Structures are given as C-alpha cells and as structure tokens.
What does this fold into?
Amino acid sequence: MPRSLSVVVLVTLALSTAPVGGAQSLDSPLLWSFMNRFITPDGAVVDTQNNGMSHSEGQGYGMLIAVAADDRRRFEQIHQWTTTHLAVREDGLLAWSWNRQEGRIGDMNAATDGDMLVAWALLQAAERWNAPSYRRAAERHLDAIEPLVVRHGGRWLIKPGPSGFMPDGDALHVNLSYWVFPALQAFAKAHDGPWQAVLEDGLELARGVLEQRAVIPDWIRIGPEGTIHPSSIVGQPGRSGFDAIRVPLYLHWARLGRDVAERHWQGMQRPDGGKAVVLVRETAEPVVHMAGDHAGYAAIGALVSEPVPRWPAATLAHDYYPAALQVLSRLATTSEADA
It folds into this structure.
C-alpha cells in the first residue's frame, strides 16, 4: 500500500568517506536504535510518517531486523502483536494497517509485500533458532499468499492485494517493489509454489520497463496481452519514488539484476548531476524531491554504486521509513543469496 506523500523536501546524498563492510552490519548500533525507537514494548512497529500507524510491511521489517540482531525476545513480541492485531482475515492474509489512535484495524485489505516480509522473517527465525513452529507459521503465510501470485499477460505477477488493482477489468496494476527478491529466493527453496517463476518474470518485467523508460514507476499497468504502461492507480501516472526506491535494495539483497538496479538508480537522480533522489512523472522530469531525512535513501545509492558501500551516516534517520531502508541496506550486504 502506498505511504503518505504529503511531505516533500530536498534529499541530498552526501556520502561519508568511511566504508563499512557487510560483516559489520549485524553488529551495527543502527539495528538496536531502530528497534528501540520504532518498536513498542508490546511489539508494534510504529510508522512515524503515517500518523503513528502500524502495518504489515513494518511488522515484517521489524521481524527481519530482530532476527538479524539475534533478539528472539523482540522477534516474538513483534510476531505476537502481528498475530493478535493483524491476523484477522478469513483468508489467512494480514490486514494491512492498524490505526493506533483509534485502537482498531485501519485497512482490512492485505498488502502482499507485508505478508511476504513476515513469512520470510519467520523462515529466517526458524533457521536461526531451530524453531519448527516458526517454519509452520511461515508455511501458513505462504499458502495464503500463493493465490495472489497470478498468471497474467504471459507472466507470473504478484497481485498487490486481494481487493482492487484491476479497476478496468482486464488489466492488472502491479508494483515492482512488492517483488521482495531475496524472500522469493527463500520461498523457492522452502515451499512448493511458483516462487522462482514469479522472481524471474519480475526481473524480466523490470528490464522491460527500463527499455521504455528512464526509471521504474511505482505502479505499472499490465494489459491482458502483456503490454506495459505507467499506472495512475495511485497518484501521478508514472510517478517513481517511495515504492520504487526499494527495487534496487531488493535486487542487491538477492544478488540479482545489477544492471537493472544501476539503471533505475541513475534514472532517479537529478539531471543536472546533483546527487539527490527525486520523484518523477511519466516524462522522467523531476517533480519534487524525496521526503524526509536522506540517510535511508542514500544508503540504497551506496549499495548500488559502490563495491564496498560508503554509508551516508553513522546515526539513524529520524523517521520510520528512511530508517528502515537504512538498516535493511546494511542487512542486504550480509546476504548469503547466490550471485
């Protein structure tokens, strides 16, 4: 589900000069700073940029970070909060959001990437702590997610949620940042299903988009015959920003599609050569600069641009989303995925 785009300010990508190797990332104080700042004692991950809501994406990120920190107590708190508050749908998927101010579900629709992140974190937890119960929970999530992996327009695609996303009846609107590529790799190894096929078709789709455009849009319309067009289902048609910035993160994490990651990242830069991430319209001309503090967005640029990342900041970004990207970028350098 798209996040709020109400705040738009300049994002500079000034990089520090001290490289940090991937082996150091698990010991990074950024992990603990994230958990202490954004995770409540009962296990809710708080999105400070969206009225303090909690949502399935954030719960999944929090669980991944807790596993990486080898903090089983925190992981269990996050998992239990997620199960208690979001596992309320009959189809086994998680409700997307919890309105903390009102103490109730904010959106009953599911967001497929949130469920994927939770399932992936459970698989990691099962392996790290030799906990079969986590693996069984992951398998239940994957069984629920699988109906959202659909064959459409000659490709295996990820439907962003069970409701909506086909407003004109025959075209499917997808979001390539919902292809959590390292999670799909883990699913292909752990559970029967079309996970490898959807991974390969997602990478092919990204390349197909970049044959037409300078940058991958947040939302893409796939016609029944497989045609690719920018989607206006959310926001401006062809806008690329908060969602699409995760595509190079996930590709790097999976050790896939470096050509795609580099080209997309370059498409998000200012045409005058200044190192700033921008939201772009269909024409690929800058409209507004990325919102919030820059460290999390710059971290993805460090992943894409340098063999040994030069991380942009030693301190955690102020708000939830850039902070999550900042920490996840560190975790991506420790991936054991095949090149």
About this structure: The first helix runs from residue 29 to 38. The chain is about 40% helix and 10% strand. The beta strands are 54-55, 97-99, 104-107, 149-152, 155-158, 172-174, 220-222, 228-230, 278-280, 286-289.
